[in-house]
TrEMBL record:
Pfam families: Neprosin, Neprosin_AP. Residues 146-404 form the Neprosin PEP catalytic domain. This is Neprosin PEP catalytic domain-containing protein. Keywords: Membrane, Transmembrane, Transmembrane helix. The chain crosses the membrane at residues 6-26. The keyword Transmembrane applies.
Length: 404
């Protein structure tokens, strides 16, 4: 019955919106009071997000990290989490059996040596401008995501959602790259977990993002996002709204990565979100390998409706978009993919999903749908082992540009 279980979507897409303004409409009297309202709302959110730190850590990248009492982190301002009891580790981490001997600090910049004190967790400080940017950004992506998929823009691929099978997580190793992109552009390498009908789509997205609006520079950073209604009223990127519960004392959203040196040396990182089999929260972990990955924190099950149990759909790929310009940014490492030299291409390997008992399962090549960019000169995608039931390796990316 393998064919009836087609629900992996190798997802490779480019969307360039030029018509949808990312700014607030300012239109006469009503909008002035609207913007005042927005301002008050943003101030309120800032107070929720920026708790009094126990310790402040400044890191070289210029980020300010607040170490917040783990029980006072923003997540617990979410009414849905009023009765939530914090969990310090997932019920079990797939592959946890081996010792954690390999240090992540070689790949992850950020706190590196200095961790937050015991009982506190690191949270990248959110400024007012960050929130305004994030809001605009969400507006934009919401238009895309409200449709469950990316709409039929001339530069987008439509993704067919096939419901019917349950997935309890997704994982892959992703290569790490620096990209130079403009301020209103963003580019990701990521995994999507989705469930629900279009207007109430629940999703968790995670991976590596280049986004000057959210992060102040275009370097490769860890990101995660969630929503329970297509970003209409719930959800956000990273820690920009109450939702994600941070547990790890050293690694957080916004962490920088060491980048591959083109043609010389390739770096990659293992990323995973899995639903803890007993507590049913969605845990993010990261490591050099599956065996050594560390839990970062989790999105509690209370946040979700359709994702409260499982995902109906898992996607892997890249997404590049510009908020206002007509050209789109590079994806992956900025070069078209190839399968001969993995220091010269962006790739994912060991792409797997997690089943109900938390085991990693290989994707079956025969049940994957591949969605390529409609402009292969801008972005493309290749599979290294196109037949059979092995670990799937995918090379992807491209320079972007004016793509139609
Ligand atoms: C982990 O390390 C300890 C001590 O170094 C050792 O006794 C134990 O067997 C190791 N466990 C595994 C699963 O390798
Ligand atoms: C969904 O897509 C259609 C076109 O495919 C578009 O007209 C509609 O506005 C989109 N929905 C949202 C919320 O943007
Ligand atoms: C999950 O996968 C493991 C390993 O392949 C398998 O033994 C187990 O039966 C699977 N569990 C379910 C619920 O499918």
């Amino acid at each position: 019955m393998k064919n009836s279980q087609n629900s992996f979507i190798l997802y490779f897409i480019l969307v360039s919106f030029t018509v949808i303004s990312a700014r607030y409409y300012v239109d006469g009297k009503r909008s002035i009071s609207k913007s005042e309202e927005d301002d008050i709302e943003i101030e309120r959110q800032l107070r929720v997000l920026n708790k009094k730190p126990v310790k402040i850590i400044m890191i070289k990248s210029g980020d300010i990290i607040d170490c917040i009492d783990i029980y006072k982190q923003p997540a617990f301002d979410n009414p849905l989490l009023k009765k939530h009891k914090i969990r310090i580790s997932p019920d079990s981490i797939p592959g946890e059996l081996t010792n954690k001997t390999i240090s992540l600090s070689s790949l992850i910049g950020g706190l590196q040596k200095e961790r937050c004190p015991s009982g506190t967790v690191p949270i990248r400080r959110t400024t007012k401008q960050d929130l305004v940017n994030a809001k605009n950004f969400i507006k934009k992506t919401r238009i895309i995501q409200a449709n469950n998929t990316y709409p039929n823009a001339p530069t987008a691929n439509q993704v067919k959602i096939i419901e019917g099978k349950q997935y309890f997580g997704g994982t892959a190793h992703m290569s790490l790259h620096d990209l130079t992109i403009y301020r209103d552009e963003f580019s990701t390498s990521q995994i999507w977990l989705l469930n629900g009908p279009q207007e109430q789509i629940n999703n968790i997205e995670f991976g590596i993002m280049h986004d000057p609006l959210l992060f102040g520079d275009s370097r490769a950073r860890l990101f995660g996002s969630w929503t329970a209604d297509g970003h209409q009223t719930t959800g956000c990127y990273n820690m920009m709204c109450p939702g994600f519960v941070q547990i790890n004392r050293g690694i957080m959203f916004g962490n920088l990565f060491q980048s591959t040196i083109y043609g010389k040396v390739s770096y990659d990182i293992h990323l995973m979100v899995h639903r803890a089999p007993i507590s049913k929260d969605w845990w993010l972990s990261i490591g050099l390998t599956a065996e050594t990955s560390e839990p970062i924190g989790y999105w509690p099950k209370e946040l979700f409706t359709h994702l409260a149990n499982s995902a109906s759909n898992v996607r892997y790929g890249g997404f590049a978009s510009a908020l206002t310009r007509s050209s789109t940014p590079p994806m992956g490492n900025g070069y078209l993919p190839q399968l001969t030299d993995f220091t010269k291409t962006a790739f994912m390997f060991k792409m797997k999903y997690l089943n109900e008992t938390g085991h990693m399962v290989n994707l079956d090549r025969r049940s994957m749908q591949i969605h390529r960019s409609t402009s292969p000169e801008c972005y493309d995608l290749m599979l290294a082992n196109p037949l059979g039931d092995f670990d799937i390796t995918m090379a992807y990316g491209g320079p972007g540009g004016v793509c139609t």
